[in-house]
Amino acid sequence: MGLSIETTASNAAKYDRQLRLWGDAGQIRLENCHICLINASSPGVETLKNLVLPGIGAFTIIDTANVTNRDVGNNFFLGETDIGKNRGEVCCKYLLDLNPDVRGLSILEPLDQLFLKADFFKKFTAVIICYPTTENQLLKLSEQLWTENIPIILPRVCGLWASVRLVLREHYVIEAHPEGQLFDLRLDNLTHVPGLKEFIDTVNLEALNKEQHMHTPYLIVLVKYLEKWMSLKNSGSPPRTYKERKEFQELLRSGGRRSSSSMADEELNFEEAIKAVNTAFTPTSISSSVQKLFESPLCLNISAESSNFWIIVRAIKEYVSSEGNGCLPVQGVIPDMTSDSERYIKLQTLYQDAAKQAAHAVFKNVQEILRSVGRAPDCISPAEVRLYCKNASHLDVLSTCSLQDELISTRNTEMARLVETSGELDPQSLINVYILMRTSDEFFSQFGYYPGDVDDYEGDVVNVRSCLSTVLSKIGVSSKFTLPNELIDELVRFGGGEVHSMSSFIGGVAAHEVIKLVTNQYVPLNDLFIYSAITSSSETIKF
Q: Which of 403, 375, 355 is nearest to 310 (CA)?
């Protein structure tokens, strides 16, 4: 019956601080998700810890390994008394102690056996894969999850290097929370907010006493002085150029009342209006990213299998073409401003009513679309449609490079280009870290351990160079490419070790990305995040 976006009172109190970040809708999605962790390594468990604490619904750990001395040194959750026990079961027990509202399960079956269960991985919202995992296992699992559009998160640590890789076929960003977002006031066309112009027309600034004048919302002040501006300039448009805006600000300054030369007597509402001049008259428009969604074949060709996202986007597109007169639905939110309560509430109500009317029109479009493809017209709720309408200006779809294209395709020219500009040509480039991590994985696939993990330093250095050649060949990079010797030596010195402080850091990064994916809020990284504690630097790389 669609998305419920109200959380319970008890959870509202328990999760009060995080609800301020992602709201009731985000918390409900978090509480309904089921996360899978493959291999309870240090970065994997740290990631899961940061998901259990904010209240995911459930998690499943798949791990056949037993706790070793090395695990005790790497993993905060494990102690000497756990040595010899199944690592997944022990970590599951300790993680459940962190939040009684979360359900958890540990599975001891080998990953290769789980592949034979066709629907096993379909129940998960996201899958976190940690090393050691062979390339064949990664490719087989990623192919299944890619088909089901289930995101993969790969956090990893190698000594003082760390990374997080996201694998997304199609991820919907509904609430992007963009920085510096402008309020949707529609001052360039007041008819988009029914009743707004009529309400503003009832205000006569010259007839107001001092108290009323200094508490007139700046939104009203702007419209009143815009009318005066257009009359003086004999123009039908608001100030656009820098010179015009400066002139308009001076006009506003001349309208403020002062009983003395004291700054304390300045009318704050007029100061707010002056500051808002540069943004308040920005023409209402549709961003190129949203326009791209409207032109997508997935929006134009709706079927019974289409996701709610594309059905609602199609409904918004139809609204823009009809009732919206070329504009997206009004958001219905106004900024804080100096005002008396009565007029502020009136303005707020007008904008909220405009947003409700727009959302109702979009919802009717949604119902018609659902009927046309043979789906129940109530399978998408009005609340879900209102959420999309409120955030329509920043809806987006993200897709990353698949693991198949990354690991086995030589057609990824962008990756090859990035690699060829690093190495000896740019020793500080974090692409070098990425290459070394892939080389470490290739080494593990061939020899069954990570470079430096046994007492054969010189032999491992030779084998690392051989594995490096194999990786470069897979990427499609010239054999002339070389890495600085000190980086290869560093890889072997690390011995595949997962330093706990690094795991803690990268687990936090990975958990943030999972929360973005689960809640459809904020914008996830694209595709790979790399961090080096050696140089205290990080980089996000798009393949």
A: 375
Express each pLDDT in 138-196 by its tens digit. 999 999 999 999 999 999 999 999 999 999 999 999 999 998 888 999 998 899 999 99
Instruction: Give me the count of residues in the chain.
Output: 543
Amino acid code (one letter) for 428: Q
d(CA 153, CA 162): 13
Q: Give the contacts of 271 (CB within 8 A, at least 6 positions apart).
A: 256
Give the Cα separation of 539 and 528 in Å (integer): 8
Quote the longest CA-to-CA distance of the chain.
90
* CA neighbor of 457 nearest in space, from 492, 485, 491: 492
Query: 259-271: per-residue pLDDT in tens?
Result: 655 444 578 999 9
Q: What is the DSSP string of 417-428?
A: HHHHTSGGG-TT
pLDDT at 353 (0 to 100): 97
**What is the sign, positive or negative, of the torsion defined by CA atoms of 518, 126, 133, 398?**
negative
* Residue 103 bridge partners (DSSP): 58
Tokens of 515: 């929360």
H/E run at residue 529: strand 528-532
CA distance 480 to 459: 22
Please name every residue paired with 498 in a beta bridge, in sequence order, or none if there are none: 159
Token pair recorded at residue 56: 């995911």
Q: What are phi and psi for residue 471, nearest 5 degrees? A: -65, -45
CA 232 vs CA 52, 79, 207, 257: distances in Å: 62, 79, 21, 21
Tell me which residues of the chain have a pLDDT lower than 70.
Answer: 1-10, 259-265, 409-412, 479
Amino acid code (one letter) for 438: R
Report the pLDDT value the prediction gives residue 131, as an integer from 0 to 100.
87
DSSP state of 127: E
Give the list of residues 6+ apart from residue 198 with CB closer than 8 angstroms, or none: none
CA 446 – CA 467 distance, rounded (Å) = 9
Is residue 1 classed exposed, middle or buried when 0-12, 13-18 and 19+ CB atoms within 10 A define those classes? Answer: exposed
Q: What letter represents residue 543's amino acid?
A: F
Q: Coil, helix or strand for 540?
A: strand
Say which DSSP state 237 is in: S
Write the CA distances from 512 to 47, 209, 232, integer angstroms.
9, 52, 53
Q: In whole angstroms, what is the distance from residue 268 CA to residue 273 CA?
A: 9
Q: Please give the structure tokens belonging to residue 358.
A: 């727009």
> Cβ(327)–Cβ(192) under 8 Å?
yes
Radius of gyration of the chain (CA): 29
Q: pTM of the entire structure?
A: 0.90
Q: Give the Cα separation of 449 and 254 in Å (integer).
A: 77
d(CA 83, CA 66): 7
What is the model's pLDDT at position 399? 94
pLDDT of residue 410: 64
Beta strands in 39-143 (DSSP E): 58-62, 103-107, 126-129
- At 112, give phi and psi (nearest 5°): -65, -30
